[in-house]
Specification:
Elements lengths: L1 H14 L11 E3 L4 E3 L6 E3 L23 E9 L4 H11 L5 E9 L5 E2 L4 H9 L3 E7 L1 E2 L2 E2 L1 H9 L1 H18 L3 E5 L8 H17 L3 E6 L17 H7 L2 E4 L17 H14 L5 E6 L2 E5 L10 E3 L1 H10 L5 E3 L4 E7 L5 E5 L3 H14 L3 E5 L8 H8 E3 L3
Helix pairs in contact: 2-3, 4-5, 4-6, 5-6, 8-10, 10-11
């Protein structure tokens, strides 16, 4: 029986026209994440949209429905427009365990800058999803290391923040917390751990689930303001679960490339599972891509964010050839605008989504987290349900 199974798999493999996965190239660092400046190897016409196209490590293996496992799913929501936020929740929350409201911003004195979240919270509950409060050190368009340092070192500010978090969660009906402090001074790593050691048990004692967001690291020695202060082992120990921000290698200020290339995501997961229990790891995934104007120049015009549906519609309207990068497991295409400028677009489709779902299965992770709701990717949700059973509380 084993021999027949092996022969069967080999036959499928030969018929599927696979492309072997390559090792990632040299890496630079973006302001928020690592990025990959390497060229686009093994670009081939896209052959599949969710069908079986096997690769060496299984990135594109479509699992049949009987293999579905129960996972938790998270969708981050930016409710800047209350009416649009309700629409975004209604569109996706039935496929989500949690809707994460980004974000209540901490001030240096421990106060919180609130969101207009009442309508979206009601929609979240109607869709039987858990509303998650996200607190950040975000201020004036970026994450503030000064606000974080003040919270970590001023006992009265820290206490005030914790009390405010618990008050808001009770008043608004949030049932889970995510602490997303980023761009922290590397020297504040121990201080950040100490803050988490104070806030998470307090919030958990009130009956809420607690989690943190982690920058994508591939070693404990990875330094810098976006990585150095994030202690994977400590977060894995003290939180109910962690969310790995495994995206933004391709970003608005960087060179054209996949937003979440599979080799880089693998590097992060390979490290994460050595420090954090697998059942506590939620892998991040993008619901968007970017449109770059060429030639790319550092400090030049930023790339424009584009939804998967927008990208596919653009390619269809212009009869463009969509290509697929077998190493990074992402689609891309080129076009020329009305001003004669050439563009390069990287985005997500069913094939790239399937590659990410396979990582969740292969590594035995708790689930997947999406940044950000409101980006139109309708084909993602039925494919998600084909692969997994979504946990609902």
């Amino acid at each position: 029986m084993r021999r027949i199974h092996i022969i069967f798999l080999a036959t499928i493999f030969l018929l599927s026209g696979c492309a072997w996965n390559q090792k990632p190239g040299a890496q630079d660092k973006s302001p928020r994440q690592e990025t990959n400046q390497s060229a686009k190897p093994e670009a081939v016409p896209m052959k599949s949209k969710g069908r079986e196209v096997r690769t060496k490590r299984g990135e594109n293996t479509y699992r049949v429905k009987r293999d579905r496992k129960r996972i938790e799913t998270i969708g981050f929501l930016e409710p800047t427009d209350p009416r649009q936020a309700v629409s975004d929740v209604n569109e996706s929350a039935k496929n989500l365990t949690y809707v994460s409201f980004f974000s209540y911003r901490a001030k240096s004195n421990g106060d919180l800058i609130p969101l207009k979240d009442d309508a979206a919270l009601a929609a979240t509950r109607r869709n039987n999803a858990v509303p998650m409060l996200v607190i950040t050190n975000f201020a004036e368009g970026n994450f503030s290391p000064d606000i974080a340092h003040r919270i970590f070192t001023d006992r009265s500010a820290s206490k005030r923040l914790i009390n405010n978090v618990i008050r808001v969660m009770k008043q608004k009906g949030y049932r889970a917390l995510n602490v997303d402090f980023e761009h922290i001074r590397e020297a504040d790593r121990t201080l950040y751990n100490g803050f988490l050691e104070t806030i998470l048990p307090r919030v958990k004692k009130e009956g809420y689930l607690v989690s943190t967001a982690l920058a994508p690291k591939n070693s404990d020695t990875q330094a810098g303001p976006w990585h150095g202060a994030h202690d994977y082992a400590f977060h894995g120990k003290i939180a109910d679960f962690v969310i790995l921000m495994t995206y933004e290698w391709g970003w608005t200020g960087g060179p054209p490339m996949a937003v979440a290339p599979i080799p880089q995501v693998r590097n992060v997961l390979d490290y994460a599972v050595t420090k954090i229990p697998r059942k506590k790891i939620v892998m991040g995934a993008p619901l968007y891509g970017y449109d770059w104007t060429l030639p790319y120049r550092k400090g030049g015009p930023p790339a424009k964010r584009i939804s998967p549906k927008e990208a596919e519609d653009l390619a269809q309207q212009r009869s463009l050839k969509i290509q697929y990068n077998n190493r990074d497991q992402a689609p891309y295409f080129y076009y020329t605008d009305t001003n004669g400028k050439k563009h390069e677009v990287w985005f997500e489709n069913e094939q790239s989504a399937q590659a990410k779902f396979n990582l969740v299965k292969e590594y035995g992770l708790r689930g997947i987290s999406y940044w950000v709701l409101g980006e139109d990717f309708p084909s993602n949700w039925p494919l998600l349900k084909k692969n997994f059973i979504i946990r609902k509380f």
